[in-house]
Design goal:
Layout: E1 2-7, H1 10-19, E2 24-28, H2 32-44, E3 50-55, H3 57-64, H4 67-78, E4 82-86, E5 94-98, E6 102-108, E7 111-117, H5 120-136, E8 138-139, H6 147-158, H7 160-172, H8 185-195, H9 200-210, H10 215-227, E9 231-236, E10 244-249, H11 259-271
Parallel strand pairs: 2-3, 3-4
Antiparallel strand pairs: 1-7, 2-5, 4-8, 5-6, 6-7, 9-10
Helix pairs in contact: 1-2, 2-3, 2-4, 6-7, 6-9, 7-8, 7-11, 8-9, 9-10
Length: 272
């Protein structure tokens, strides 16, 4: 028997697939957007299936550039929910295979349709073929640290209020990229630190210790935010050595802004 799963996005189709509560899900040749949708859907599902994702390396590298997605993927990998491998000889359309169904994702204009079948012989043939592909494929690892580890360490290092604002900004900045332009995890953590008047030394040490970015990257980004008029610094004397810098928001009105509003202001300023 054949059925169609219709949706406006790959995420819509994936949600329909997840609602059937499969134990396993094989994803073959997803685009970067579809791979991102797989991660987001699994991350938002209380009990997701065990997912094997087989993709072209370039597609996964594009996902790896987005900290919000890559760090969520790292959590799923750590939980043994998600496995990632790369291959080159893959079908033209993205393919989803659960315990009982095979679904081909087909783009049609601005929409995405999931054309599925639960025909047992065909399902078994597909799984057998891609099980072989999977065994021969190369493993892929996201370098981003797991988001849960990032957030817990930030709470321990600088306090729960800083962590809560960072999390709120990171969640609202769904397109945050780790490419040094616009909003990324370094910008957002510096803004959260500035909102709570933390030291540049402390936030950059946290970032380097957790693998978010180097102290040099934090310093360069701090300078960019200063030049954009978003943050300011004031010197704090210490007993030995050079004074350290306390981060503050340049406009006092931003101190009382919600974290998501602060992220929006920063995005507008940096895009100008």
């Amino acid at each position: 028997m054949t059925s169609n799963l219709l949706g406006n996005t790959a995420g819509d189709v994936l949600e329909t697939v997840f609602e059937a509560d499969p134990a396993e899900l094989l994803v073959v040749n997803p685009s970067s957007k579809t791979a991102e949708a797989v991660v987001r859907t699994a991350d938002e599902t209380p009990d997701p299936p065990e997912i094997r994702l087989l993709a072209e390396r370039d597609a996964l590298k594009q996902v790896a550039d987005k900290f919000t997605v890559a760090s969520a993927a790292a959590d799923l990998v750590a939980d043994e929910t998600l496995s990632l491998r790369t291959a080159t000889d893959l079908p033209q359309n993205a393919l989803l295979a659960t315990d009982e169904r095979v679904v081909a994702l087909v783009a049609a204009g601005d929409g995405v349709g999931g054309i599925g079948t639960d025909d047992a012989p065909f399902h078994d043939t597909v799984l057998e073929a891609y099980d072989t592909e999977w065994r021969e494929a190369e493993a892929f690892t996201f370098r981003a640290p797991a988001r849960s580890a990032v957030e817990s360490s930030l709470a321990e290092s600088l306090g729960e209020d800083v962590e809560a604002d960072f999390d709120a900004m990171l969640t609202s900045a769904t397109t945050a990229r780790g490419d040094g332009e616009g909003l990324d995890e370094v910008v957002l953590s510096l803004l959260a630190a500035a909102k709570h008047r933390e030291l540049l030394y402390d936030i950059s040490k946290w970032g380097e210790d957790t693998g978010v970015a180097s102290k040099a990257t934090f310093s360069r980004t701090k300078t960019r935010l200063e030049e954009a008029g978003l943050i300011e610094t004031e010197k704090v004397p210490i007993d030995v050595g050079r004074p350290r810098l306390r981060l503050t928001l340049a406009d006092e009105r931003l101190q009382d802004a919600e974290a998501s509003e602060l992220a929006g202001v920063a995005a507008s300023v940096l895009a100008a």
